[in-house]
Amino acid sequence: MTQPIDVVEMFKQAAFEVDNRRLPELKAETVIATLGMDSVAVMELVSYFEEKLGVRIPDEELSRIRTVKDLRDAIAKLLPDRQFAA
Amino acid sequence: MNFVVPALNALAGVRERGFTFTGTGDDRFVSFDDLRALTRKRAAHYQALGLKRGDRVAIVEPSGEQFIPAFLGAMWIGLIPVPLYPPLSLGKLDAFMDALVTILNVARPRALVTSERVAKVLWSAVGRIPSIERVVTTEELAADPAGELPPAADLRPDEIAFLQFTSGSTALPKGVMVTHGSLAANCKAIVVDGLHVSVNDKAVSWLPMYHDMGLIGLVIAPICYGISTIYIPTLSFIKNATSWLEAIHKHRGTMSFAPNFAYALVTKRAKPEQIARWDLSQMRVFGCGAEPINPDTMRAFVEKFAPAGLKPTALLPAYGMAEATLAIAFLALDEPLRTDRIDASRYHADHKAAPGGSLEIVDCGRTFPGHEISIQDDDGRLLPDRHVGEICWRGPSVAAGYWENPEATRETFRGGWLHTGDLGYLVDGEVYVSGRIKDILIVNGRNYYPQRLEWLVDEIPGVRKGSAVVFTRPGAASEEIVVAAETRTDDPSALRATIVSRVNEEFQLAVSDVALVPPGALPKTSSGKLQRRKTRDQYLRGTLGKEGRGGNARLAVAKHFALSLVGRAQHQARVLFKRLGGIS
Lengths: 86, 584
Fold this sequence. Notes:
Chain A is an all-alpha fold. Chain A is 50% helix and 0% strand. Chain A has one domain: Non-ribosomal Peptide Synthetase Peptidyl Carrier Protein, Chain A (Orthogonal Bundle). The relative contact order of chain A is 0.24. Chain B is built from 20 helices and 27 strands. The interface between A and B is large, with 27 and 46 residues.
């Protein structure tokens, strides 16, 4: 049985690795644009998820992703067989 | 001079050179002969749709492989393509759509070309653009057309080749009219005069194709002179900056161009393992333009990649903008980075660039044969060497003006010169670009250039890199200097003191207030570019750091520039990038 994917935790880890940021308060509802990361750092962060999970989020989906939960939903669509943490 | 449509036509039969598209799966090579055929196919579709010479066609297509023939196909029969950035950044869809609608209601295209997948995102905007009669997908354009393939149109040099919309305000987007003549002249200047290119050269580009440096410098110019080019999707570069140098290594690239921020990013991201493996010794040209060039970034890049064989002379500072078609000046090929150190106080007080001092300005080289640079004062008088004024330019590469905007055209293209809005000076014909006119801070009758102060503040430990914004507030006797910056420091009063004393040391300038806010609190565009005016407005209203936290306010503030690496460049280079103009 594989572990459920915890996108919020992964996001925190990614923000630290990509942008040296600690985001203890991060929630699924957090709007990514309010984190103060510049757009290149945000894209690098998306890339972190893609590499770790072996998926590629279609380019045109990106503009619909506002919150961490939106990101989780976009990834969940690509990995229908995996469980996701709430 | 090679005009783009006849040049492409003349590439019939050229199968050993062409464009290579990398990034998703296997590399795909499209020879120039194939590209010509793909272009004619698209042209046939456009013709079948009833589109006529002079009609505008908007193109929103993130894939370079699809974009290029769709763009060339329109030019093939004299349509006017309007390339636009695709919606590629995170969660900026509403702002993107608003910008798209505003631009296209100025350009009034009859057709919108986009991919099936992007069309699904754009449908709601299309209803707000009355001129659009048809949405055509690039998938449809790829199908075999019925009927004959049209011959290349016989285009006059003064006919518009395409419209290049510059960032600027969303309220009044300005579409630069690039003509076939200005395009041919500038491509010749870049390829022949500036870079001495041969058919053995290989260019590498991750630049977006909706922007002049990527589109003209690395798509159209290569077609005009039959130069093989390797493309990396912009998003692949943004997600992983090292893919740029990896592609140069793998394909034995000899030329590439990018804004300052890209050099900073790749210097930061490259791993020792990669540097040990890469061979960059064949690179002749690492062009740097589209934003102010930070000499520290350039030196760090050269130093970091020297072990991979990078030659210091490969670095090529460039200056240009969309209104110039693209390029205004390049540093000479055999020169390493050159900077001029000048006296900051004389620069600010007398508008003179006196040698010897702490202010470092990058040499962007000379303009091209047949073109001329002058430095002018406010009254249009030509200034001598080492006098700071507006950089003006004339010659066959100057664009024809702004689309249906005679007022803006008169203001920028006047007296026979393109008025760049940039400040700079000349020394023996070499141009030094030092700032933007409208950003000038005037304190006690002296002019200061906010970027210079911001660069300094950005370097102070505790200041979040790239977050400093400098502006003025009305004071008792004169304008006063205010510094705003983002920080996580535990000791804000110590940081304030450091900022005040560093600025004072370097510029002999008193900082009247330092506004420190948490990371992310300063207003930025959707692309991450700091907004100096907005920061000032919020500061004066007393709401700085209190607006746009946690919600839509920031997005509402955010204008367009989807992914806008170029827009973002301004912020990143952790510098201010000059206007989104071209190499600008």
